[in-house]
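Batch job 17 of 40 flagged for manual review because the log was empty.
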Amino acid sequence: MMRRRIGRLAAAAVATAAFVVPMAVKGVIPNPSMLSVNYTSWLVQAYDECPVTPFSTIISGVQVCASSAESTKTFRMARVMVSRTSNRVLLIGSGFPSSQAVRLRFTVRSSTRSAPLLTYIDYNVTCPATTCTSSGVCIQRTDLGTCIGPGAEVTRVATGRNIEILSAELVESPSLDVIGRPGIIR
C-alpha cells in the first residue's frame, strides 16, 4: 500500500515537471484580459551611488559609502500615479528645495492587446519639467503621450497598448540626476 502511494506521488511529480518546465522555458504569455486600475508608487530619496573601493569604510564587517554632505536629494514625500483609462500622470510632492525643477522618468514596455500578441522593446519616457513652489510643493498633471520618448515610441504609449512600468524615477531638471525612486522608508 505504501509503495503504491509513493509510486503515485512520484508519477504525479514527473507529470507536473513535464508540464511546468516547458512553460518556464517558453516564457509567460501575456493575458490581454487582465486589467489594472492604475500605477501608484511612493517615491523615496534616491541614495548616492557608491562604487566599492579598497578604501571604503567598514562598519560591523560591512562596506559603506562615505556620507554625502553635499547632496541636494532631499524632499519629504512624493507620489506618482498613472491612470489606466486616461494615461494621465500625476506627481504630488512636498519638502523640495525652493523652486527646484523636477521631471518624472519611466522605463516602460508595451505590448499589443489582441492577436498577434507582440511585446516591444523597453524604452525610457521623460515627462516635461515642473517647478516646485517656493514652499517646496510639487504638483504636476500631464499625459504619457506628452512625455518625451525616442522617436515613434511615444505613439505606442499614447495609443491603446498595454503598458508595463518597469521603473519610475524622479529626476532633477535639466541635469537628469536621479533624486527619487520607488521604495520604503523606515
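Reviewer: the log was empty due to a logging misconfiguration, but the result itself is present. Residues 17-26 have pLDDT under 50 and may be disordered. Unflagging and moving on to job 18.
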